């Protein structure tokens, strides 16, 4: 049990309403993205997809396959909608739910997916089937990042990367230095992810991070003062 999350529960809940946040950007981000209560058009399809998966699996199976929670999936959609990137990087396919959630925002977006074990994840393959014409698959993380950043640099649009499992810190630093908005999941389950998040925060000289100690968002915007926010989702 992660007792730290209980010790910080009140302060995280207080901050999640925007209280005590002095940065105008962070205040708007927390209110309009992190904790936006209004429904979005895609929430119905996200719920239906997760419900279908849950109906055919046990809780243990869902934990082993790393099924994203509906709350996190909605946050992922709101974040993607907020930045509206044309290029999205995903490290680790998980169940594919995150992929279709992010691609739901814009039909013009493309996903660069690194997962050398994708063929061994039949659920992810089925979930992704309807979007395969918009997904580039890779079994080499370095190549995936190279092509993702090359495409992003070509049209100078905002970019997002989702990290489902720990990768080399140098690759993360490269993404941050390129201005990529990063999302990291499973911090409460994976010590390697916790270490990667800690290293990433130290690496960032400017920008802001937002986390509930399960999922975290890093925004390496050089125009933002360096701040970290612990929140309730």
Structural account:
By secondary structure, the protein is α/β, with parallel strands linked by helices. It is built from eleven helices and eight strands. Helix 6 (70-83) runs parallel beside helix 7 (97-103) and helix 10 (169-177) runs parallel beside helix 11 (191-203). The model has no long low-confidence stretch (mean pLDDT 91).
Please specify the SSE layout and strand pairing:
Layout: H1 3-7, H2 9-16, H3 24-34, H4 43-55, H5 59-64, H6 70-83, E1 87-91, H7 97-103, E2 110-114, H8 122-128, E3 135-138, H9 141-155, E4 159-163, H10 169-177, E5 181-184, H11 191-203, E6 208-211, E7 216-219, E8 227-230
* Main sheet record: 8 strands, mixed
Count of helical segments? 11
Low-confidence stretches: none
Structural class: alpha/beta
SSE pattern: HHHHHHEHEHEHEHEHEEE
Q: How far apart are the termini?
A: 18 Å
Strand order of the largest sheet: 3-2-1-4-5-7-6-8
Overall residue-averaged pLDDT value = 91
Shape: globular
Percent of residues in helical segments?
Answer: 40-55%
Radius of gyration: 17 Å
Instruction: Name the beta content range.
Output: 15-25%
Number of strands: 8
């Amino acid at each position: 049990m992660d007792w730290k999350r209980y010790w910080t529960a009140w302060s995280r809940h207080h901050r999640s309403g925007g209280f005590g946040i002095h940065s105008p950007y962070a205040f708007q981000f927390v209110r309009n993205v992190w904790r936006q209560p209004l429904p979005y058009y895609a929430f119905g399809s996200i719920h239906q997809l997760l419900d279908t998966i849950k109906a055919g699996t046990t809780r243990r199976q869902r934990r082993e396959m790393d099924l994203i929670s509906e709350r996190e999936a909605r946050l992922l959609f709101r974040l993607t909608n907020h930045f509206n990137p044309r290029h999205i990087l995903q490290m680790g396919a998980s169940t594919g739910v995150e992929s279709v959630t992010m691609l739901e925002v814009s039909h013009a977006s493309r996903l660069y997916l690194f997962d050398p074990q994708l063929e061994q994840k039949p659920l992810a393959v089925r979930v992704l089937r309807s979007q395969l014409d918009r997904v580039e698959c890779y079994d080499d993380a370095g190549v995936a990042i190279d092509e993702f950043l090359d495409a992003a640099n070509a049209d100078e649009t905002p970019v997002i990367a989702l990290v489902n499992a720990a990768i080399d810190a140098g690759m993360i630093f490269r993404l941050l230095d390129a201005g990529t908005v990063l999302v990291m999941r499973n911090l409460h389950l994976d010590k390697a992810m916790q270490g990667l998040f800690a290293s990433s925060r130290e690496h960032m000289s400017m920008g802001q991070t937002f986390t509930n100690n399960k999922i975290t968002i890093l925004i390496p915007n050089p125009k933002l003062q360096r701040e970290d926010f612990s929140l309730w989702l």
